[in-house]
Fold each of these.
Amino acid sequence: MLKTWYSSLNKLGDSKKLKYIIIAIIILFLSANKGFISLITNFRELQTLQKEHLALQKENKELKLKLKLLNSDDYMESMARKEMGFIKPKELEYRFTPQDKESD
């Protein structure tokens, strides 16, 4: 049987044809193998989850920094001054009206 298989391969003549046939057989075997398909699916999901994990770690760092700033008295005071116009007792506030760009 091995001799007949080998002789049929020799009839192909061109080694390129043999390479294409072997590649086609390998592709068919791998695509028909459910374990291999599952492995590829799991690998893609792992990559997606790793990207999501990195994004969540970055967001976590930013939120920790923001929390640290919010617990700071100086930051809270500067935000109160900026957002709500907070001024301390006996402190003067100067307000300037913006100039029109047309008059420049």
Note: The CA atoms of residues 21 and 27 lie 10 Å apart.
Amino acid sequence: MDLPDETRSGLLADTRAGDNSPPLTVAELAGSVKRVIEDAFGRVRVRGEISGFKRHSSGHCYFSLKDESACVDAVIWRSSAGALAFRPEDGADVIATGKMTTYPGRSKYQLVVERLELAGEGALMALLERRRKALAAEGLFDAARKRRLPFLPRLIGVVTSPTGAVIRDILHRLEDRFPTNVVLWPVPVQGEGAAPKIAAAIRGFAALDRKPDLLIVARGGGSIEDLWAFNEEEVVRAAAESPIPLISAVGHETDTTLIDYAADLRAPTPTAAAEIAVPVRAELAAGLEELGRRAQHCVSRKTDRWRERLELTVCRWPQPEALFAPAVRRVDEVGNRLPRALSARASHARADLNGVAPRLRPALLSERVIRASEKLLSLWRLAEVAHPERPLSRGFVRVTDRKGATLTRSADAIAAGTLALHFADGTVDAVAGSKERQVQPVERKQRPSYVSRQPGLFDEAGE
């Protein structure tokens, strides 16, 4: 490249023939080259294939643009990287707009990219197909991941533009079919920065305390460039990871984006998404009414069938007179025989009594009674002798503790402490001391004597 005349004159102003010409410093030379390149290439558009794309943690992006015979280093600063309309990938055919500059520290030149766009629809379709295959290989589009939509969602979340016709069409269709609650998360649906906001909206609905029962991600039709935000990887991943069933309604029926593959169901249009989301309330009411009529008809037919079977069964039963006739006849026969049986039984009992009457003499009965009385009297006298209170009348004393247990040892009496002394005519409370001390009476209680003579069974009255 020929240098401008003013630059050339500045570099050679002090240069003379011979070894005494003043040298330039490296910084001066590098700075002059930088100014020349930036002035000559202050605004360029370069088409090439992305290679070695890397996004640094600082947010800057570094890559190369190459074709069949050359390669140019390129950089996208963080301020411009956030406004890209798509995510750059290796192999993408792009057109980069920016300016050329140099990096004096490494003697390198590079293209500072301010805007990056795909080079035509063919390049977009090629990039789209590569991305689709890569995401499909991860299983994000598997049919096993698809979930059944709720039959009648009480709350529907919609991710779309708040100013377009899409949201109005959805709300109008829901109102016609089955009015329900709708929450709108407004997002831009095309252009730079649309994809991150759409992905954030999908994840934001999943983070709400009261989550919607169904999500609809929608926008109207447009070119592939207009719909490109819904082909971005972050949007597709957010749709695939959503815990809420999701309907994709992007574009018209012929438009297809990657979010359609990741969604649980694809609707051809936003209006169709509203029709899929809820049933028709009038049809449900009519269906319920029809089911009620059918159920009533089934019950009536079942009742009629049971009634017919009962009538047929009753017709086969025997008449009550014929059924109970044998039992009635047996009762009559037993009733006729009963007076004769009672008379015969009384005659037999009278004969038995007459047979044993001679042996029932009064003397025999008196003798048996006397023997029984004597035996009972002997047993009574023996009981009086063995009674525990009997020795008390002869001067003995029975010692018990508070619970009434009889004490027979002095150690038990001392351990009990308070004693009861039972005499023939009453009880005296006492306190036990040591063996050398005498028992001191505490209180005297009168009680009836347990020793009294029980009159004999055959004692005469008044004895």
Note: The chain has four domains: 5-123, 129-142+155-279, 287-323, 383-463.
Amino acid sequence: MRTLIAILFLVFAGTCGALWWLQFESYPPQVELLAEVGKIGRKATIDLALRADAPGLRAVEVRIRPEAANAEPIVLHSEGFEATSWRGSGLRERRITIEPDLTALGVPEGRAALEVVVDSYAWHIVPQADSPQLTVPIEIDLTPPRLEMLTSAHAMRLGGAALVVFKQSADTVASGVEVGDYYFPAKRGYFADADAALAFFAVPQDLDTKARPRLVARDAAGNRREVRVPCQVRARDFRERTLEISDSFLQRKVPEIREDNRLPATDDLLQGYLEINRDLRRRNEEMIREVTRESPPQADWDGFFLRQSRAASVSNFADRRAYEYKGEIVDRQIHLGFDLASVKHTPIEVTQNGKVVFADYLGIYGDTVILDHGLGVFSLYGHLSSIAVGVGETVARGAILGRSGETGLAGGDHLHYSIMLHGIHVDPVEWWDQHWLEDQVFSKLALLPKAAAPPEEAN
């Protein structure tokens, strides 16, 4: 009898032990906040990682508890996980991303706590309380930044530029102008008024006159304000050109450019050329965008932008080029700049006071110099035969930065010249025009008192 009792006790203890091992948890459910959420705006994004022991996750609830006394929590997200066996869901890890509309949910502004409650299918000797596994202090801010437009006339041509001057509230952390998928960041610090900002923007040549620029601002909580920029965009016809590609040009240029850009050699010179004209061109523009990402909020400009002396235009901005090989059109590209030609190896003049941010070989542009003129305005000088300046050097309008050449994808000695707004090419003709600069740029920069020069620049 005693033996039977002992056996039954061992079976019972073993069964209990097995159930304990199978169904009780060795650690409580865990929650990790994957991105900081110190401030939350109208439309928050909350990323969470949930973890539980073997029985798996049962449910999760994300809520906000306002700081006010006796305030009831407001549920942002509630989700259950179905059991797949008698043990539970078996779901040990889950990542959730929620984007609640706090305005629609009636969440009040002010201090609050973000709470996350997680339940699992594990057994508990003492029932779990409805207490959060994660509590994070937050601030609810549902008010977007304020914007006040100070400029009202923004007449421009397709492919051209314009300048908007505005005031933004102190809580603004980022602002700029959106045009289609393009974004032109604003600069604060040019004017003495700390709330005043400006942004050069363009309606790029690949858009149309239906494009509607929007001034946008965002605060630390992610709230966004958008104001339509009053703008009249005039249509224009870009020149269409057909360029013939000869075998001698392919033999001269393709091996050289592929070697200089560490591309594999190829016996198919036409295909090698097309890869350069398409893929390398695209990568070069991506690199230009990166080089021109940052620009100071000051500009020490000396009048209008200088056009190269005694140079003839051999190609215009945004020419639509068709490339013909043995009577067949093999490619089409847009020429994002101005080609200027003079005598061979002619000295190249700096278009405007600025700082050298790039002076090196750049794919289809060959030996290239890029200058930062401040306020997001840059100029590019390509196909040079020699470079006489270095990165970080400050150069003055009219100084010599190098000599013209035919490096890169150039068929003859000339200068490829571009004006860019944070890497977006715009028509240089406007910047050579003193009347345009006075009317569209300098008059707007004079709307408010200018900030004092930084100490290192002061006389």
Note: The chain has three domains: 26-140, 147-234, 240-427.
